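Task card 7
Instruction: Convert sequence to structure tokens.
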Amino acid sequence: MEEESGRVKSIFVYPIKSCRGMAVAQAPITSTGFRWDRQWMIVNANGRMITQRAEPKLALIEVELPTEAFSESWEPSSDSYMVIRAPGMDTLKVSLSKPRDIVEHVSVWNWKGSALDEGATAAEWLSNHLGKVSRLVRFDPASQTRATDPDYADGYKTMFSDQFPFMLISQGSLDAMNKILKEPIPINRFRPNILVEGCGPFSEDLWKEIRINKLTFYGVKLCSRCKIPTIDQESGIVSSEPTETLQGFRSDKILLPNKKPQGQVYVGQHLVCKECFTNDSGNVIQVGDPLFVVHQLSSTAEAAA
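Output:
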């Protein structure tokens, strides 16, 4: 019998890139990650992504999908909606039926393509909230593909996430950070898809192959942290923490001594899922699922970053 290494404590899905996530009891696996994850994105007048790095007010946008949307076989009807809220704004409802209009020249990092346009009402709402011309677009997997970096995860794909389909952090890591930080921070600063408990701090650094439920995940790259963990997700206020403190014990100089330092700090592990290529029933993970480590590295010095 394999020994259990931890359990899934929480699952988070972020329907709109850089807006608030949703904690869900279960999430089906698709070819691009969890269903609905980063399927939408806010873009500027040039079609370029807008994220919290430039617009911390995105942290204040709450997103809600029907609970049944995370059932494996559920399909939206004409009266299924994504509900969007922000302080001082009327509630916005966006139909989950796919729009017909196309926006060309949409870009996220070095990817360029077309996307589905969620229309004038959503554009006006977002433009008013952000104070700049903005539109809401939806990834169109029927016509577009966004591949992950082949140097780390060849053959996999994602929608509008930054790099890879999944990101995992352990509760042990968050607890260890909060013991050092002057002000404890919640997990939403790090925006994981999967939060696991029952393992040691930063154990996930070393995980190269894990199993959750019947699904196999491969750890492909340590997660280098941008500005977003310094943004309070309840207020949108930016500070220097936790990045300033993390430089003292989670920097590339310390964790990856064999590589040229880039001034990065690392929290979490990016994952891909072996079963994303299949349409088998039961490709779902749930809160409470046990996690088993199949293969791990001996030290972070061996880790990809």
